[in-house]
Specification:
The chain has 733 residues and is an alpha+beta fold. Strand 17 and strand 18 form a beta hairpin. The chain is elongated.
């Protein structure tokens, strides 16, 4: 009720007056009232409470007024300080020697000093706070006091200026009317505004121009002095083909007096004056040179030669300059061309000699190749022809040993057999060396298990070592290597047999060391050792350092074969030796990537316990002597041999007696180009899969593969009777 009587918007004094009047009225009515219920007293209490509330509200209002007055005082002080700071900032900006302007983040001009834009008198009065930056740039671009570069428009300059405004920091020079210069620098403020400084750099630009002109004068003098010291003649023409510079050497080379060269004369005029003594060489035409000089487009360098007098030659080189002018240089190349002619003549003579020598070398090479081929054919034929009677001799001697009863005669026959074996080894070694030297040796790289090969080597050489009182030890290895089985066996056999042969006491050790993807196969002995100066000799043919060795111990061919075979297989071969302590030969072999190596072939059995009586063996051998020796050997074993010279004879003989053979023994090379493999196939076609054996001196892998496909045993000449008997034992079991 009180709030309805009192308007809160009235000032406190007015509200207090109303409250006092209400209280007086209530008191008066209370005194006049005689209501026994105490209503007057209640109204009095309410009046007292209202009075207390009025006092509280009054105090609050007074406190609020005090705060408001204090805030107004502070605001007035802050405004005064702001105005003072603005005045100080304006004064500070005014003291800046450069033109200064500040644009806010919305690119609106906030303030500038009086030096800002003073060089642009026609728009100076428009540079006031509130001006947009784009409008400011437009005013500057269209000002009559702005000197635009040649070829540039006001719109282009305005676009460039707006583009630079996007950078956080930009500095550029502007040329003004009256040949004055301003450097304009823009900097971005932290709140996104822009500060522009305009610095008058007219004096600086004038000093720079004076310095540049001085440098150009100095440079001109240096260039002139340089041109005069050149051994080349030089002429410089401007974009209009006018002569602007030359040196004294140009007149000397062109045989023109100094007075003929005049500043500003055209190229065509200069050429007409020198044309009488000049001839253009090398196929270049005058029209091409004139077109090059007259062209206004970008020109590639032009070079040609001119002749002066009888034998003087000048090399001419013309090149365009950046200002579309060009420089022509003249170089005396008479001596060089004379030297070239001399060299050309010498080259022709040398080429003729080289051609003649090449023909001679080609003839010599052809002759050497023919001789090498002839040697290879001779060695192959000789080995075949020598092995034929050698096989026959071994068979005859072998049959004599079985028939002779007298111990003395048997001993002589045994010695004769040993001698034949030695001859066989020598022939085999010579044949191997011939193949390796001629490059005709064929290799068949396969995965080889070293364990089987080392076991066979131990079985062969351990008894020989024991007879000499030597310890023969082989360290087994499960390594599988990549190599040619035949040549690797020959390498190991030669190295191990040499170690046993030349070691008198101690031991021979064969072991394998594994090194990542390779293995090192070593053959060590405790022999006399090889002096360092003789270590290269041991790999040569017929070289034996042990003078006491007999021919039966070898002819010095084993290591020669080892060295050539290792070179052919690309197996590094190393030799380390110490005199009096022993020798070590090592061969480095690559490990095979195959999963496993094929199992080695089992050693041929002797077959001594197999009965041969009444068994029929067809023998096809075109050599009569070897055929007779084989017939005697087979007969001595109790076999019924049917000796034939050809497949046709064997087929006719079997048809005549009307019986099938139990085994076939055929020579590989028969008469008239016939082959033993074909004979075996033909007889099998008639009589079924008869066990067969092919006898040959050919040791090529291709023939071994052919025998494997034919399922025929391959025996090499000279024929080993033990191997032959082993084949028959297996075939007739």
């Amino acid at each position: 009720m009180v709030h309805e009587l009192i308007d809160p918007s009235d000032p406190p004094e007015r509200q207090n007056q109303k409250l006092l009047k209400i209280v007086e009225t209530l008191m008066r009515r209370a005194e006049q009232s005689s209501d026994a219920s105490g209503e007057a007293y209640a109204q009095f209490q309410r009046a007292v409470m209202l009075e207390e509330e009025v006092r509280v509200r009054t105090r609050e209002l007074e406190h609020a007024l005090d705060l408001l007055n204090e805030s107004n005082a502070r605001l007035a002080l802050a405004n005064a300080e702001t105005e003072a700071a603005r005045a100080n900032l304006a004064n500070a900006i005014e003291t800046v020697q450069e033109g200064f302007a500040l644009f806010d983040a919305q690119d609106v001009l906030v303030m500038c000093n009086t030096r800002f834009g003073k060089h642009l008198a026609d728009i100076y009065h428009l540079l006031r706070p509130g001006l947009k930056f784009a409008d400011y740039v437009n005013l500057v671009a269209t000002s009559a006091h702005l000197a635009l570069p040649e070829g540039e428009t006001a719109a282009g300059w305005e676009a460039y200026r707006i583009a630079r405004h996007k950078d956080d920091h930009a500095v550029f020079n502007v040329m003004m009317a009256g040949n004055s210069w301003l450097q304009v620098s823009e900097h971005r403020t932290p709140d996104g505004g822009t500060v522009i400084l305009q610095t008058d750099i007219t004096d600086m630009m004038r000093l720079e121009r004076q310095e540049r002109e001085r440098l150009l004068d100095d440079q001109s003098r240096v260039i002139k002095a340089t041109l005069e010291h050149l051994d080349q003649g030089v002429c410089i023409f401007d974009a209009q083909n006018r002569l602007v510079g030359w040196n004294r050497r140009a007149g000397e080379l062109l045989s023109m007096p100094a007075g003929k060269f005049q500043l500003g004369m055209f190229f065509a005029t200069l050429y007409r004056q020198a044309a009488g003594s000049i001839r253009i060489l090398g196929g270049t035409r005058l029209e091409e040179i004139e077109a090059w000089v007259a062209s206004s487009a970008k020109r590639a360098p032009l070079s040609f030669e001119i002749g002066m007098g009888r034998d003087r030659i000048l090399a001419v080189f013309a090149q365009q300059m950046p200002d579309k002018g060009f420089v022509i240089s003249f170089t005396d190349v008479t001596a060089e061309r004379a030297a070239v002619r001399t060299i050309s003549q010498v080259n022709e003579t040398l080429e003729q000699r080289v051609a003649e020598r090449t023909l001679e070398l080609e003839d010599a090479l052809s002759e050497a190749e023919r001789a090498n081929a002839s040697k290879s054919r001779f060695v192959a034929a000789a080995s075949h022809d020598l092995l034929q009677p050698l096989s026959a001799a071994k068979l005859y001697v072998g049959s004599l040993e079985d028939d002779l009863q007298d111990p003395g005669f048997r001993d002589r026959a045994a010695k004769a057999g040993n001698a034949l074996v030695a001859v066989e080894r020598i022939l085999g070694a010579l044949l191997d060396i011939s193949k390796l030297d001629s490059g005709l040796a064929a290799i068949d790289r396969t995965a080889i298990s070293l364990s089987g090969m080392l076991d066979q080597l131990k079985d062969e050489l351990e008894p020989v070592a024991r007879l000499k009182g030597l310890e023969f030890r082989v360290v087994r290895s499960g390594a599988v290597v990549e190599s040619d089985s035949a040549y690797l066996r020959r390498i190991l056999q030669n190295l191990a047999s040499n170690a046993v042969r030349y070691t008198d006491s101690g031991k021979v050790l064969i072991g394998v060391r594994q090194r990542r993807s390779r293995v090192l196969l070593e053959v060590r002995d405790t022999g006399p050792g090889i002096p360092t100066e003789h270590q290269d000799r041991v790999f040569q043919e017929f070289q034996r350092l042990n003078a006491k060795a007999s021919p039966s111990d070898g002819m010095g061919l084993g290591l020669a074969i080892v060295e050539r075979a290792c070179r052919l297989l690309k197996h590094p071969l190393n030799l380390t030796s110490e005199v009096g302590r022993g020798t070590c030969f090592s061969v480095e072999l690559p490990l095979s990537t195959a999963a496993r190596a094929p199992s080695p072939l089992p050693a041929p059995a002797t077959g001594a316990a197999v009965p041969f009586e009444n068994r029929i063996v067809v023998l096809i051998e075109n050599d009569a002597g070897l055929r007779a020796a084989l017939e005697i050997t087979l007969d001595s074993w109790g076999l019924n041999a049917l000796p034939c010279a050809s497949c046709a004879e064997a087929s006719a003989l079997l048809q005549e007696i009307d019986i099938g053979p139990d085994a076939i023994i055929a020579d590989y090379q028969l008469d008239d180009g016939a082959l033993g493999t074909d004979a075996i196939a033909a007889l099998r076609a008639q009589h079924g899969q008869v066990p067969a054996c092919l006898v040959t001196a050919n040791r090529s892998p291709d023939l071994a593969a052919a025998c494997a496909r034919l399922n025929a045993v391959l025996l090499h000449k000279p024929i080993d009777t033990g191997e032959l008997r082993g084949f028959l034992g297996r075939a007739l079991t």
